[in-house]
Amino acid sequence: MKRLIGLLVPTAIAGWVLRGKIAVAVTKKALPKRLSSDPVADLPDGLHIAICGSGSPIPDEQRGNPCTAVIVNQKIYMIDAGEQASETFARMRMRPDQIQAVLLTHFHSDHIGGLASVALQRWVANAAETKLRVIGPVGVDRVVNGYNEAYALDNSYRTAHHGEAIAPSASAGMVAESFDFDSGKTSKVVLEDGGLVITAFEVDHSPATPAVGYRFDYKGRSIVVSGDTIYTQTLVDAAMGADLLVHDALSADLLKLVEDASRDAGFLNRAQILEDVIDYHATPADAADAAREAQVGALAMTHVIPPLPIKALEGPYLGDAKERFKGPLWIASDGDLYSLPVGGRTVERSSLFASGPLG
């Protein structure tokens, strides 16, 4: 037996070495294509929105915290940056140096937890010349200043290690740009760039205030991102006639299962939190009603609560939403890309997650 083992061990080691050599060869061949990939450059003129995070604070193996990225003119405008935002963004093969600004809807942890990582990746990707703009309602300066202070030492280490040419100290971190609504108004244009108009509008996520959504208009195409909200007329008004509405949605029935299981397991605090969150999120039915009343072209539901580990749960999650809204309706997933080419009314759905080696 010892002799047999002595004969097998070198064979196993040889096989392991051979597999390693093959893996290195495959990686060497695939890396240049992977690193030079730029899916944004191949997009037609129009509005496009990539889902960098379609989940919620509830841990979800399939979904990161909230983050979407609107793409126009090969520029990227990110809405919120929850945990895993930069990782999912990288998996979608998009370039962080194309990020023009992050627009925050509100300041819950799941919407800002990945902000510093996004800023870091953008800074060093191609020696950014400017700090990352972070646009948001009143309070955004506190968030940005806090992150800047928390990462000040880290930024200084990277400049000291790599030099000013690679990690320029002047462009490290973020700069806050706060806005407020004029008296009696519930919406405001917060950015205009090359034909793109971004309008912020009030939503209701009390007690998390202020909270806003955003509408993007470009050459006759339009996308609305709700942020976190219950059903509200201000969103319906802001989304009127939009091509695509991306709306948060919570299934109270499915979440009750998680709540009950948490209580049975002795996690009473967690169970109470799960019960509490129902009153400040729209349901799939609410989102469908808003889409129908706003006469939007298509609806994608995001900020999915609770997680849907089994595909068969998608039906119970949606409930009667498809009866309430007759247009195209999707449950958004991380990696999704929704494209709205100029000159039409279509909304095309695909994925930016690559397959194969190093995909």
Task: Supply the key terms.
359 residues, alpha/beta, Metallo-beta-lactamase, Chain A, eight-stranded mixed beta sheet, seven-stranded mixed beta sheet, 12 helices, 35% helix, 25% strand
Molecular structure report:
There is one protein chain. With 359 residues, the chain is an alpha/beta fold. The protein is built from twelve helices and 15 strands. The longest helix has 35 residues, at 2-36. Strands 6-5-4-3-2-1-14-15 form an eight-stranded mixed beta sheet. The chain has a single domain (42-351), classed as Ribonuclease Z/Hydroxyacylglutathione hydrolase-like (Metallo-beta-lactamase, Chain A, 4-Layer Sandwich). α8 (252-264) packs antiparallel against α9.
Indicate the topology:
Layout: H1 2-36, E1 46-53, E2 67-72, E3 75-79, H2 85-91, E4 99-103, H3 109-112, H4 115-125, E5 132-137, H5 140-150, H6 152-162, E6 174-179, E7 187-193, E8 196-202, E9 212-218, E10 221-225, H7 233-239, E11 244-250, H8 252-264, H9 268-276, H10 284-293, E12 298-305, H11 314-318, H12 321-324, E13 329-331, E14 336-341, E15 348-351
